[in-house]
Amino acid sequence: MEIQNKATSLWRNFFNVKMVQMRTFHMTWFAFFSCFFAWFGIAPLMTVVRDELQLTKDQIGWAIIGSVSITIFARLFIGWLCDRIGPRKAYTWLLILGAFPVMGIGLSWNFESFLLFRVLIGGIGAAFVITQYHTTVMFAPNVVGQANATSAGWGNLGGGVTQFVMPLLFSVFVVGFGFSEAVGWRLAMVVVGTIILLIGIAYYFLTQDAPDGNFDELRAAGKMEQKREVTVNFKRALRDPRVWILFVIYGCCFGIELTVNNVAALYFFDYFDLSLVAAGFVAASFGLMNLFARTLGGIFGDNFGALWGLRGRSVWLFICLLFEGIALMIFSQMHVLFLALPSLIVFSLFTQMAEGATYSVVPFVNKKALGAVAGVVGAGGNAGAVLAGFLFKNMIDWSEAFLILGIVVSCASFLAFFVRFSAEQETEQRAAFAAANIDTLRKKAIEANKALEEGIKALGGKPGATPAE
């Protein structure tokens, strides 16, 4: 059954938090921002951790792989869980439980214990699936691409912000309070974990599953499919080849972003002889593009969908991936900072637009198994990061690893042409798209009429009177 009363505009009521759709939108991107910040909070401090725990390059590689590997399974599970219990409860539990390993990593004393906590922290990366799920059920087809892209993009922004905030927080503890470096990075992670815990509690009280209520209420009223049908739809989604094509595609954009978030600070520290803070700021420029880049991917996805239907969304996805691969190959060959930085930014732009383009397609693959599709595709991002991590774990030069990844992404871009939709799906979505646009125009007309009546009343006339009266 289709969720009703979805918002047909993202920007017109952007700050109206009385609307459950907008309140949920802001809570979900902020929760994901916090998760992403915590997920990669240790990355910009790895130079300090490496020296204290005496980690080898191979061990750092395993830590990179571990941080994203468990998220594959967490995302598969969380998608199914969203369909069963709703995104509100799923997000609340993920945030609360995820806060403990974030704080607990401060207890690490050797490589094995550090790796264990790094793996457990990766579980909060499943927050992405809930974010996309929650915005999808809150927004209509004409804006769902940009709503998904913006919530995820601003969430991913945490991966950029953490690159310079964590070194600064570390400096506050070491320089400001006089703690040793060994204690400073541990206390910094405790602060982040505490914030995650508090946001989890707030999420439960400030959001609801769908525009008309929580899933339990909607199921009781017969407005949603029952829980027993969730697993059936999940299995059906797993048999759809388009889901696995998008799995690979997302691995080639979000998987690359995860990898860069993990290695960027070390890459600029070791290859360009920058300080810890300077390397963090340069690495942050990659993640900070999420402020608008992923939104652009979603907006163009919606526009291509308006002009050419669901097929148009797939074509836009191809364009983003192809240019991402080309930009990554160029970045890999830049060995001076004033050339590496702009090429990194261009590469980041297309990477994040490709992510937004992917999730402008996902909501239309299988509406009855939205959580399953979102979860599988999201897991593809982490699977890509795991595979890419092996390149950086091995002893090859990191610039060569970036070149190889660029070639792979460019080749994978052509898979977008195999994400096809039936004539019935195209017709259905064109009708839904048109209905959402009509609803938007109707609301604008109501608002304009209300403003006109208020203007007439202010001039001394009566509501409903003509200007002549």
Give a quick set of tags describing it.
mainly alpha; 0% strand; Growth Hormone, Chain: A; 469 residues; transmembrane helix
What does this molecule look like?
The chain is mainly α. The chain folds into two domains: 20-220 and 238-421, Growth Hormone, Chain: A; 425-464, no CATH class. It has helices at 20-39, 46-53, 57-85, 87-104, 111-121, 127-138, 144-176, 181-206, 215-220, 228-238, 241-251, 254-271, 276-288, 293-332, 337-358, 370-393, 398-412, 423-458. The longest helix is centred in the middle third of the chain and has 40 residues, at 293-332. It is globular. The mean pLDDT is 88.
Count of helix runs:
18
Which ranges are low-confidence, i.e. pLDDT below 50, for 5 or more consecutive residues?
Answer: none
Assembly state: single chain
Element pattern in H and E = HHHHHHHHHHHHHHHHHH
Q: Would you identify the CATH architecture of the largest domain? A: Up-down Bundle
Shape: globular
- Strand fraction equals under 5%
> What is the assigned CATH homologous superfamily of the largest domain?
MFS general substrate transporter like domains
CATH class of the largest domain: Mainly Alpha
Total strands: the figure is: 0
How is the biggest beta sheet arranged? none
Structural class designation: mainly alpha
Look at the structure and give the mean pLDDT: 88
Helical percent range?
A: over 70%
Give the N-terminus to C-terminus distance in angstroms.
49 Å
Number of domains: 2
The CATH topology name of the largest domain reads: Growth Hormone, Chain: A
**Taking Cα atoms only, what radius of gyration do you get, to the nearest Å?**
23 Å
Keywords: Membrane, Nitrate assimilation, Transmembrane, Transmembrane helix
Family: Belongs to the major facilitator superfamily. Nitrate/nitrite porter (TC 2.A.1.8) family.
Transmembrane segments: 28-48, 60-78, 90-109, 115-133, 154-179, 185-206, 243-268, 274-293, 314-331, 337-357, 369-392, 398-419
Protein name: MFS transporter
